[in-house]
Amino acid sequence: MTAQASVRNATTAAPLRPQRGGGPALPKGRGSGVADLVGVIPIGLLYVVFILVPMVVAVFLSFTSWNGVGNPTWVGFANWSWFFHNSPGSAISSTSSIWLTIKVVVLSYVVQTPISIGLGLFTAGRQRYKVVYATIFVLPMLLSTAGISYMWNGFLDPNFGPLVPLASHFSFLNQDWLGSSSITLYVLVAIIAWQFIPFHTLLYAVGRRQIPEVLYEAARIDGATPAQMFWQVTLPQLRYTMVTSGILMITGGLTYFDIIYILTKGGPGAATSTLPLNMYNTAFQQTQFGYSSVMAVVLGVIGIAIAIGLVRGTGFGRMQSQQEGVN
Amino acid sequence: MPAWLRPGRVISFVLVNIWLLIVIIPLYYMILSSFRSEDTYQTDNQWLPLGGLTFGSYTKAWEVGMAHYLLNSVLLTVACVVLSVVLSLGMAYRVVRRNSRWVGVSFSVILFGLAIPVQAIVVPLYIMIVKMHLYDTLYALILTLTAAAIPVSVLIMVSFVRDIPRELISAMLIDGGTEWTVFRQLIWPLSRPVMATLAIYNGLNVWNNFLLPLVLTLNNSTVLPLGLTHLQGSFSNDVPAVLAAVVLSALPLVVLFVMMRRQVMNSLGGIVAR
Amino acid sequence: MRSSSRALAAVALAAAVATGAAACSSSSSSTTSSSSSSSATSAASGSSSAAATANLTIWADTTSGGTGPSDLALKALAQSFNASHPGDNITVDFISDANIKTQLQTAMGAGNEPPVFWTWGGGVLDQYIKAGKVVPLGTTSTATYLSNFLPSTLGAVTFNGQVYGVPVEGTQPVYFFYNKQVFSDNHLTFPTTWSGLLSTISTLKAKGIAPISLAEGGQWPGLMYLEYLTDRIGGPSVAKALQDNAPDAWKNPAITEALTDIQALAKAGAFNKGFDSTQFNGQSDALVTSGKAAMQLMGDWDLGSANQTFVNAGKMGMAAFPSVGSGDPADLAGNTATYLSISTAASPAQQAVAKEFFSSALASSDYAKKQVAANEVPVTTGADSYFTGPLAAYQKQIYASVQNAPSFTYSWDQMLVPSLGTPMLTNLQKIFDQTETPAQFEAAMTTAAASAS
């Protein structure tokens, strides 16, 4: 019996989501010790050497003052105190960069999630014409971040861009899209959404496809309206996709850097200097690696806390708290 | 009223098509402008293909050295995608099997990495890479970018593999299978959809990556996004040439997508597209 | 079963091919091109014997991908040096202007710097010197070739009496570059006083022309206004106090007045629309050459970066910053030059060759002629006799004004250490944006100066 066939059988016979916890423990197969080593050591080594060790070094640097040349000088908690006193003397205050980061993350989530769900459900449909839509929706993913940035940079140019001739008829188009201390942040959120919605649309389309049709049949038989089917069948079944997509959006948004860097470098002034931008500028423009390491650690801690919170709070972690072996 | 005229359908149809326009219009602008030259860009109509259209900007962009950047980007992406997908699937299988406690602990440690920002570790990474004599090589980028992709990859893989019904696994084990055969004959084939999705996700992140190439490479191993920046330069406003370079840089992915569309569509759960 | 093992084999093959190709590509490219690390280590690990020949790489700045006239001039100089010094091989690696500071910084931090590198002198070079990374070249008495350069141009690389760098690109003072046609069409001559400038601005605004093109998106163009206004209002001592980090140097009333003037200008709409997102990558030039804007305050490299047809036809006017208050209108601000320095990581043989290159090539009249042909204004003495060609008039004017300037203030963002220069630029942009007051600017800068390294 092929794997696919047995999946189908198991799915129709058993409850729709496989059991979690409960039931007898699965025995260890032969070769499980070796399998553990082979499966975990190489990837673990890569991770430790190139992610953990540098992070430890960054923590160390946060207690030093270093301009990148020569040797770091130990300064104890001075940098930390500087940061938590709203970074006096810096043109980008710590509170403003944290607040901007939060804004970007929240706005990105609020904008990208509903649109991705909607488009994902749409493209998950099996009608032939939807293939055309799905193909076009994927196009932004074929451009690199730099490519997307330069495209929008040209499109939104306030002096020579294509919106300028239109602005004589529609005056609201006459904006300094990428140089305004009031609207540029939102423009960037929109461009970032343009970049990432295609990916999350894919995630939701895959998630939608995995929902067995029997549920919809049953609901239809029970006389449910499309709205009811959406709220009571689709959304609950999409829960794990929403969690994955949400984790990626939030942790991605916290550390998002590229488009902002290429388009505004955090400007004008400090209007788009989120914490990652602030960190980069402090390190590589201001050559103050001690200060920037403080920001790096803060960013890391916030991100870790959020990641753990999301994973625990949404049941991903349930697998980890089980006593017996599962699956 | 007929089904297709119901308000819900109409609204969703309108919204979907608005999004379609939002996607297409800037792309249209870019492609059209790439066929202009630096002088005519500011004078010709920017919305209609009137006036002189030329390939000049494409030759200009190509001559800057795009072939070299393209090759580097392709090699880097393929290597990172293959490594990250295969390694993370292996790890996910062991995590879900939970045969030893330390595997679960490793999983938690790796999840921490989800939140570690690359910017934070860039300077220490640079120093390490130089000391390992890997500066300005593709190896530096392959190792660091694969490592950076590990947390997300393991997360996505675990969430998928966990849904594989236990009954299948226990059936194979009872039949005398080893952990390896369970992996090879069950987990691997079933994971094709998620491998495709993860390949897309990681591939794009690696393809796009800007900061690590900026810090870890110079001229030899420059990849495409950095190459685009070189072209943009500080003092050149040749918008058509930059856009032509962007279009050129997207071509490999377009070709790949066209060739692999069937697999991609299949991995979207079972339709057989054309 | 079979399909999955085939798939596995395919994956393994792909991985092998990819990593193998990566190895081939990186190793072959590193042998065919001389990257700085390989040539530095190969030369450093006991290369030359008594003849003191060496291979060395120069990291140089480019704004045109290594193909611009200035880049080619430097390349040609290196090639003729190699030809006349058998056994020596000098290669120039061009790094884009946007990246060079960062790349050099990280290279210095990891001990991976090239033998010879480009800087703008000032605070950044001082950081490297204090960390023992730069080779002193001597003084004008001990290294006589140094007196081939105009004295005011060595100030940015002189610390504790020692010279640490040699000019490589010409001098770059800042002037107003304006569209002559726009001015004559509106019956205007370029103003020589501040009030004249203000009335010119309002005349132009009334005609729907953006009076001043400003690329504040890059932050540094706005600095030129602060430099000149401060100098004209308070004299060069104000900037000197900033450089020396004198107490309350940032609270000087001249600075306050300058900032207030700048803010008023911006509020009155003297600058082009969208100046905060306009970059100096040709956009701000195009505004002037197309007549949409009338003038731009910019360094003299603008003669090379603006539309060459326009410039060669003599349509670009060049004027000094107007007089304001009691300051000397002959004072200049800008980049006195850009420089090459030798790093202490270079082997003794490399250092000797580099010094030979500096003294015999960079200080030579041959190079000055090459620079003139690339539309630069060289800072070697006697260069004014080489000015022929379409830009001769501009070059002569620039050279004379540099020779005669009572003071030539170095660009503040180069003069100050980066931990001070970077917040200054950001705070200044906020002034242009009306999101900060002069008082806040000065308070912030005073705090930053107190802890600057």
Q: Which regions of chain B contain 5 or more consecutive residues with pLDDT less than 50?
A: 268-274
Determine the mean pLDDT of chain C: 84
Instruction: Please name the CATH architecture of chain B.
Output: Orthogonal Bundle
Distance between the termini of chain C: 65 Å
CATH C-level category of the largest domain in chain C: Alpha Beta
Structural category of chain B: mainly alpha
Order of helices and strands of chain B: HHHHHHHHHHHH
What percent of the residues of chain B sit in helical stretches (DSSP H or I)? over 70%
**CATH topology-level fold name of chain B:** MetI-like fold
Shape of chain C: globular
Would you kindly provide a brief summary of this structure?
The complex is a heterotrimer of chains A (327), B (274) and C (453). By secondary structure, chain A is mainly alpha-helical.
Task: Write up this protein.
The complex is a heterotrimer of chains A (327), B (274) and C (453). Chain A has 327 residues and is mainly alpha-helical. Chain A has a single domain (73-319), classed as MetI-like (MetI-like fold, Orthogonal Bundle). In chain A, 64% of the residues lie in helices and 1% in strands. Chain A contains 14 helices and 2 strands. In chain A, β1 and β2 form a beta hairpin. The two termini of chain A are 20 Å apart. Chain B has one domain (65-267): MetI-like (MetI-like fold). In chain B, α3 packs antiparallel against α11 (224-232) and α4 packs across α6. Chain B is mainly α and 274 residues long. Chain C is an alpha/beta fold and 453 residues long. Helix content of chain C is 48%, strand content 14%. Chain C has helices at 2-32, 36-44, 69-84, 97-109, 122-130, 180-185, 194-206, 220-234, 237-243, 253-267, 283-289, 302-305, 308-312, 348-362, 365-373, 392-404, 412-415, 418-432, 438-450; strands at residues 55-62, 89-96, 116-119, 158-159, 162-163, 166-169, 172-179, 210-212, 293-299, 316-319, 332-335, 338-342, 408-410. In chain C, strands 7, 8, 9, 10, 11 and 13 form a 6-stranded mixed beta sheet that branches. Chain C has a 5-stranded mixed beta sheet with strand order 2-1-3-12-6, sandwiched between helices. In chain C, strands 4-5 form a two-stranded antiparallel ribbon. In chain C, α8 (220-234) packs across α10. The longest helix of chain C has 31 residues, at 2-32. Chains in contact: A-B, A-C, B-C.
